[in-house]
Amino acid sequence: MKNFLLICLLLLGFSASAIAQENITVTGIVKDVNGEPLIGVNIIVKDMPGLGTITDIDGTYSLKVAPYKTLVFSYIGFETEEVLVKDQRVINMVLKEAVTQLMEELVVTATGPQEKITVTGAVTNVPVDMLLSNPTTSIVNSLAGVVPGVMAMQTSGRPGSVSEFWIRSISTFGASTAALVLVDGFERDLNEVNVEDIESFSVLKDASATAIYGSKGANGVILINTRRGNEGKINISAKVEGFYNRLTQLPEFVDGYTYASMANEAKITRNQEPLYQPEELEIFRLGLDPDLYPNVDWMDLMLRDGAWSTRTTLNVSGGGRTARYFISGSYQDQQGMYKTDKSLREYNTNANFKKYTYRMNVDADITETTLLKVGVAGSLQKQNDPGVGSTAIWTALMGYNSIMVPQLYSDGRVPSVSDGDDNPDNDQDRFNPWVQATMTGFNESWKNNIQTNVTLEQNLDFLTKGLRFIGRFGYDTNSSNWITRKKNPELWQAKRYRSLEGELIFDRVAPEVKMRQDSNSEGDRREFFEWEIHYNRKIKEHRFGGVAKYNQAAKIQTQRIGSDLKNGISRRNQGIAGRANYNWGLRYFVDFNFGYTGSENFHRDNRFGFFPAVSGAWNITGEPFMKNVKWVNMLKVRYSHGKTGNDNLGDIRFPYLYTIETMLSDGNPTGGYQFGDYNFDRYWGGMRYSSLASTNVSWEIATKKDLGIDYSFFGDKLSGAIDYFQERRDGIYMTRNYLPWMAGLESNPSANVGIVKVEGFDGNFTLKHTVGDVNLTLRGNMTYGKNEIVERDEENTVYWYRMQEGHRVNQAMGLVALGLFKDYEEIRNSPRQTFGGVMPGDIKYKDINGDGIINDDDIVAIGATTRPNLTYGFGASARWKGLNLSVHFQGAGKSTYFIDGSTVYMFSLGDGWGNILKEMAESNRWISSEISGDPATEDPNAVYPRLTYGANGNNNRKSTFWLRDGSYIRLKTLDIGYTLPKTLVNKAHFNEVRIFFIGTNLLTWSGFKLWDPEMGSSHGKNYPLSKSLSLGIAVNL
Amino acid sequence: MQIKLNMKIRYWHTMVLMLMVLCVSCNDDKSEADSQAFDPNKPIVISDFMPKSGGLATRLILYGENFGNDLSKIKVVIGGQIAKVIGVKNQYLHCIVPARAYDGDIEVSILGDDGESIAQAEASEPFVYEKKMLVSTFLGKHAEKEADAVIKDGTFDDCGSFRNMRWLSFDPQNPNHLYAACQTRGTRLIDFDREYVSTFSTNINDVSSVNFLLDGDGDGDMIVSSDHSSDAAIGIFRFTRASGFTSRNDVSTGRGVKATAIHPVNGEMYFTRFRAGDVQRYDFETGVLETIFQNPYAGVHFMLMIHPSGNYGYLVQSERHYIMRTDYNWDTKRFMVPYLVCGAAATSGYADGVGSSARLNWPMQGTFVKNPDYAGQEDEYDFYFTDRSNHAIRKLTPLGRVDTFAGRGNNGTSGYSDGDLRTEARFNEPQSIVYDELRQCFYIGDSRNYLIRKIGYEE
Which letter does DSSP use for residue A633 in this model? Predict the structure, then answer.
């Protein structure tokens, strides 16, 4: 609230200074074509930045202006009008509603903005307002289900964490599936960009759109351009939002008594001694000894019900005819979920994340034909974590069951569980979670970046009409630093039995460690340079154009480069690219793109590659016979075919160079000769290839085909696009692990051997309709991709189904479970299972190869992949006067994953570590009738098998039994907003004031109940995603 | 305007609603009866308790009414002994059964501010108190390291420490005389009569065992072995009872004699040799020394211990971590080729189990103890032995099952603590053990704690 008041004051100050001019006074009234007065119309004096006014409730205005100036009337959704002031004192204006047609919509492509009708490749323009309602600090988190062709998955809800995303489908098992992200033309981190600063966001999906990026374009490209100033009155907008975040689904664990009883069952059912005597269970139940028989709800103890975060943005834009500016700043503060104990210390150990960003874009017309654009942007991200780090806390939070140790012993000692190891450093992840969160000091990390762009655009019409030159230079620095301040109190664990006198007996788990400090940093610097020459002409019905482009980029690690000289060498790319396009009468389009790019990471013979792509389109609506078909506004068919590359090998530098090292054995030279005389040591060790030169290594090549339709019907009421795509990725880089020993190699060389093919489709639709005063919009989109490994370096096997070849990339593989064994009779009559002893109630597997033995040869592909192969989203929005409401649902399908780990395989560690989910404890599991007294509990179709205390090789392995369907659908956003009536806000000199409520991840539907399905986690021990409720206000002046 | 105003009201209405949603807080409702204070107007009632029987340190739960909620104001007396109260919740109470609560009558009282009893109640039936075996420290002064272990003669209260106790044995004719063979640290005589520890003079450098011949032909003389590395030197000596164990005679040469064994029926002597890796038989009647079989390993520490019936002996393969059995041929009066009973040859480890699935780590001296549960069976004895590097006393049953009898308390390994056999007691490299038939307890040479421990029923 304080922020908001400050901003109001600021805004008032700005507006007050705008009304102190003299000369003649012009008054008038502005109406629409129906004669209704328009409130809040912007009236500015052309070329006089800062001078202007807005109309009041009755549509009237009054403005002092020098004669012979031009007044510009502008209003959102209406066409702008200009009037020259001579001697008239009253200027009444009628504004016409602007009719934007889809045909005129601009699409940002690799070579600049282009009319949508002329685009022949698969490019999706993302409406920026769809990205605004995201409560997290990263835009990526809002991409899934919004952008056709983008699949995304948020795997952690930790403040500051980001989603992974990929375009269309994963089509390689190589080092990188990440798309190329270009911000203002250069490769930059998507998460650095403040959403409010985005002017356009487009996704380039097929080869014709990305060939120009050559060896970097294979995984798709995302182009973001940031906002720039427009000529006109100063425009100030500010937005303040407060979020209340709650975790979507927190794992719920059983209480102490249930845990202890189940542990006993697990022991007894395997003919072992029970872990707890009846009187001990009774003590658990009655809670009579909180030291030795505690019952701690760690989740409740550690986590808040919700956490607050805020986001404030302010931007100012405007300018005159010769120079324009856009300045923005934003601040985000995300608080973590841990409860902290203020009484324990002065500093805050809660996890939090703060991000400050700023951006300044200035465009200056140096001459009539020369435009200079300068942009500077930067961000500072600060993050706090408790001393041991959030990962360790979550591990402990999931591993500490309710009976392990109390929060504090009754004598004030701090409890913790030891792993039996003498080294206290190894114990850290088993420190009591409450200790980890509140008593281990804190880590501070921060990242700062500065990004600079300078662009020079020169119109060369004086040479030949339609010729243009653009030169661009970029310089970025990134650095990240962290300081850890770690400590821990003296930690104790009570022995399970009291002394004969009834006193507790303690073991010291870890000695007290005073606060220690450590710091480190990482950094890099990037330099970019490119120039382009554009040529566009229209001669009668022939329109043609061409682009020639040169680009180079370098990235160098500036800190922590270590002693390896290779780390100090910049990663450089260089390339030329071009485009030629032709169309006839906006009906038939042909487009040719190419990239000839090189990467210095490869051997000189393989350094440069040529990536061509052709595409064509037919605008059916342009045909004369379609002139009378009024309901079709646009119908366009397009096809593209081309190649792009991927030069990302991960961290490997110069695979074409070999490395020779001294042979060592236990740190001493070996394999050499002793040159010394007797009793003198002159031993020289032998040398060997530690890594072999792989001279032929080069980039992955993607051959892509895309067939698409863009459509718009019924006066643009229904519009969208559908694409079918095919891709074949050749030359996927991988280590040749299965060369015969006969080859005599000391290390495994690498080669471009893998092949993956992909096909799929993506599409979207938008339906707009107006009923009375209500504007309704329905949106939907879907992306589906299926990949298949055609070839990869893997061990040959007799059983084809064990190969990864012929399956999806990262296909889940496991045994096929046939339920649980009914009795010993069934075990005797079934194929022998070789994973350890089997009892009734254990999992029965299918003998795939029919050899009478169940072993690893019976592992087959089951289910799909962890990452979804299908992503979809749909939503509706309605607008009625000042009120708007929109809902957006997002879903994912064709995804399966195995669940495992100590939370799923109950008691599997056998040392008391690990917890039992309430959901699992309450589900139907196989219980021996000797324990339950009811033969019905020996259910061969039970959801969980007979319990085991300790490892169970037979049950606890990947099989269909533990395979879960990861598909889900969730109410991703609910957005309710109210724009205050103009009559009200104009009195306070505001242009627009909007108050809104946004809810994200409010509801989830999924067959999987144990934890949030979107995380794709196999064990559910990650920081869960959050659902957030936010209230905000946006003002525009 | 009216409509707009309405809308505003509605807007604030929704805002308030939303805020209410945001501020949902949950109140745990704790059951009130649990934590009620003692009510002096009502009587204390003990309605039930569990378990009904047990030894000392049993966790006892009492059910009833009006116990109050103040730990400092409640006193529980069981069998006349004060029991430590761990937790109380008005209707439940948890306490620890004290030692020597033989009578088992349970009495709960609430104390006033000055510690006087203001209300009390007694359980209608007594708790059945069972005596329990415990590990205790019998004799000697604990030392952290060998240099601190001072050896001296003296009364039981002041007899210093014990070092290298390899062998413990009672004089079969005087149950008040216990001998401890301590290698180079001398042979000690523990006299229960005088409660005095003295050094028994042998003039032998390295005493590895002390045994006694049969009363008949052997006159109950003492046999002392010496563990030296000379083929020619005498390894076995005989001290005559008639001389009060002062007159020493040579019996036989022997190199690396780890222990002797006297056949309990026929009286001949057997001993094991380290370097040669064989078992020797000496016949006192004929004076003949012969090798009866070869051990599977030579150059290792191993010992023979004979069953009281004389039917068989255990060949404890200390350095190879397993135990073999050799059966006695009554016709030839010789032991026969041994076979495995428990453990795995040359594989050390710790595991209870049957036969070859059990794991041992340096088993040392053992002793046969009659188990009343086996009455009428062919073999009525369990074999208790020290498992040195597992810091435990193990038990081998006639059927070949190995259990841990005592030690490794609280899932630990070595250490020095007394108490419950399995949950508390810890040893540090115990290597000798003897059973005292008279006092019905075990004495254990706890070599790295430098003292003698006792396992017996609480007194």
Answer: E
